[in-house]
Design a protein that fits this description.
Chain lengths: ~90, ~450
Amino acid sequence: MGPLVLASDGEQGRTAYMKYCHQCHPGGEAGLGPSLNDKALPTFLKRFQVRQGIGSMPSFSEEQISDEELDDIMEYLKALRNHDGGPGR
Amino acid sequence: MRSSKGGGMTEFEGPRPIRPEDIALPDGYAIEAVATGLTFPTGVAFDDAGGIYVVESGYSYGEVTDTPRLLRVEPGGGTRVIASGGGRNGPWNGVVGHEGVFYVAEGGAYEGGRVLRVNPDGQITAIADSLPSVGDHHTNGPVVGPDGWVYFGQGTATNSAVVGEDNASFGWLERHPEFHDIPCRDVTLAGVNFESTDPLNGGEATTGAFAPFGTPTTEGQVLRGRVPCNGAVLRVRPDGGAIELVAWGLRNPFGLAFDPGGRLYVTDNGYDERGSRPVFGSGDYLWRIERDGWYGWPDFAGGRPFFDDDILPVLARAPADPPDPVAAFGVHSSADGFDFSRNPAFGHVGQAFVALLGDMSPPVGKVLSPVGFKVVRVDVDNGVVEDFAVNEGDTNGPASWIGSGGLERPVAARFDPTGTALYVVDFGVMTMTERGPEPRKETGVLWRITRTGAR
């Protein structure tokens, strides 16, 4: 499969993901935190986790990640889940 | 040993299998092994005729020492020794070729860091010495700038500015009990101190930031900065002389590279969850370096205050507002040597190709799955990080963990002078055991990635 192709909100979501999420979930895979690219968790629950935090994951306020950025991150995660993950996967 | 699922937590029985087909690349690229059987290699360089050279570190975490060496890689994969370091003053952390000579960063784990000029006949001259490098992190990654100066990184003595038990387990606290981090500029301390057991004398000890083990600090205490210092990018003229400060407030600036426009970038290994002042959840970072910039260590991570409010700042006031990083890498991924593509024939001109050594969990902190162990491509305009060379399989990890013949621990990536081939230095197998890191000699590999056709 080829490279991940994203719509504009997915591109913005990828940029935001890299800034806020990639460190603990590198490329959507497990690292410090669990993998996100194989989870069928509903979007509203993912948003809830981001806003409230869970376990060792910190919460991110609207001042830190705006609602619009969070929407874009969710779009990126959808695209990531529907993709094979790039080389090696 | 803490429960974790790091990539080093596996068994290894040599010899290491080498199978390039076990490594995935984007369509249109191919990888091959150029040299194998290297012991702790950390850098690759080229001479003016395109000859290929690697440095073997001579030291590895796990307190394993060997002879640091500069090797020429002959056609067919054999190697010839060009120069050897004496004593036990590795690791040699990186090398660069420039105008007929080589510059090597001598980490200085036992005697202090140096930057060495190595002639092709093997003659070695130190152009910088007495660098504060006998702690956790060393003298790293020389590169020659557009101005002709030799730029290098000097890592910190400690994880987060406080000497503690973790430094005893690294091995250096007993050798150098007086050693501690040195600020590059004057700083004022908050007087935050930390209790720990005393691995040197028994009992308890109280230690402050930027102070020897067992030495508390006071609120408002001013420490005079000086150069050379820790957590810095420094530079020296190619024939030696005074060392100048370029940037500070870094932790372990391991890889340095200039982009095609002549701007300096560094990779910086983020905090670990260890010692008297553990920091959870800090990634590694790629920074664009501004002259005299301060990048946040030891009170910020990735340009932001710590998420954990319980970690009190040790500085009474930050020297500056740290900038945002260009890109962030996975927590404990160990982002190390890198280079920028300059040739459209390879593609991705102006983007950085970064070697991720991979986690050393659990001593540095726990992870749920291996992190790193690959080469990634970074768009420095938007911070997007994408896999470029990664082992085949459903789960990321080193070849020894997956059971394949692919990448183990990429520690450096550099383009050849034509810009058509990306060389990847693979440190080799290093497992994590109850006894600490166990690096395996003669398992290092030099890989070469080229573009084979249209994508």
